[in-house]
Design goal:
single chain, Elongation Factor Tu (Ef-tu), domain 3, Rossmann fold, seven-stranded antiparallel sheet, 7 helices, about 15% helix, binds flavin-adenine dinucleotide, binds FE2/S2 (inorganic) cluster
Length: about 270
């Protein structure tokens, strides 16, 4: 269940020109979070901006985590894009940060993660939401497609590895890293590697246009495709209806990303 609590900043450092890693001590949320869930974070205490901002939990270390020093820590990987994230970039060690979380449904893991064939496809900071899947999926066969506009938007490539069958593919739109083009074009050009009759588990997170292009490109009916959707959010817990998305569900075609999602079956999203 989601709670409102304060995290204490342990570290807030720039990892790429526009990207930061915020590490907080926040045991109450770290204990409960699963991959794909998010928090609503108050980016400042001066009321500007007024509304909290949603961020995926990039790492959470519950009380029983084997790395004792990390227990209770909660990490957020964020891109500085506007007023709120600019304020976050100024968070100092020891500062209190108010959070509500964990929120949303999170990803569903394959029934047998150790033998699953899994594909992750992430664009830009969308990788922050996919990266926590490495831990439960690393013992299976994992292919990771990472895209960004430039090399400075390629995130989390070192988070994958250590597994027996991890393969990493990189694409940048300007060609400064990996294959030139979008991550979708790269993925579709590599699709022949994957047997469309095998039950692959595909996890996707990135800008809407990327997710939409994938939904048109992936045809196999045997694959389950979970997409974590980006939306502007007012509250994060179902009250404002600011984050609605259209689905094929005949009973409730309009669903709130913060409550029914952020993870949806890609085939059930209606693109308007
Ligand atoms: C479930 C969820 C998880 C997210 N996880 C992360 C994460 O792990 N790391 C991260 O950096 N960001 C994440 N985001 C996006 C993040 O919430 C926004 O970047 C943030 O709210 C921007 O706040 P701001 O005040 O700095 O920007 P604003 O001043 O509000 O906006 C600046 C610019 O960013 C655009 N923008 C703002 N919010 C969004 C959004 N939700 N989707 C698309 N464009 C947006 C605006 O249109 C505008 O152009 C997530 C969003 C959702 C819904
Ligand atoms: S953000 Fe308010 S209902 Fe989803």
């Amino acid at each position: 269940m989601a709670i409102q609590t304060d995290g204490i900043v342990l570290n807030n450092r720039r990892i790429k020109p526009l990207y930061f890693l915020l590490e907080m001590d926040c045991p109450a949320i770290a204990d409960e979070t699963k991959p794909g869930q998010f928090v609503m974070l108050r980016t400042s205490n001066d009321g500007r901006p007024l509304l909290r901002r949603p961020f995926s939990v990039y790492r959470s270390y519950p009380a029983h985590h084997p790395e004792k020093r990390k227990r209770g820590h909660l990490l957020i990987l964020y891109k500085m894009v506007g007023q709120g994230t600019r304020k976050m970039a100024a968070f100092k060690k020891g500062e209190k940060v108010n959070l509500i979380g964990p929120l949303g449904n999170g990803f569903t893991l394959p029934p047998l993660p150790s033998s699953a064939r899994t594909i992750l496809i992430g664009g830009g900071v969308g990788m922050a939401s996919l990266s926590p899947l490495n831990e439960p999926l690393r013992s299976g066969q994992l292919s990771v497609f990472i895209g960004g506009k430039t090399k400075d938007d390629i995130l989390c490539e070192n988070d994958f590895g250590g597994g027996k069958g991890s393969n990493i593919f990189i694409a940048t739109e300007d060609g400064s890293r990996g294959k030139k083009g979008t991550v979708v074009t790269l993925f579709l050009s590599e699709m022949k590697r994957f047997d469309k009759n095998e039950p692959y588990h595909v996890y996707v997170c990135g800008p809407d246009e990327m997710v939409k292009a994938l939904s048109k490109g992936i045809k196999s009916g045997k694959w389950t495709i979970q997409a974590s959707m980006e939306a502007r959010m007012g509250c994060g817990f179902g009250a404002c209806w600011g984050c609605v998305l259209k689905t094929t569900d005949p009973q409730t075609p309009y669903q709130r990303v913060c409550q029914a999602g952020p993870v949806f079956n890609l085939r059930e999203i209606v693109w308007e």
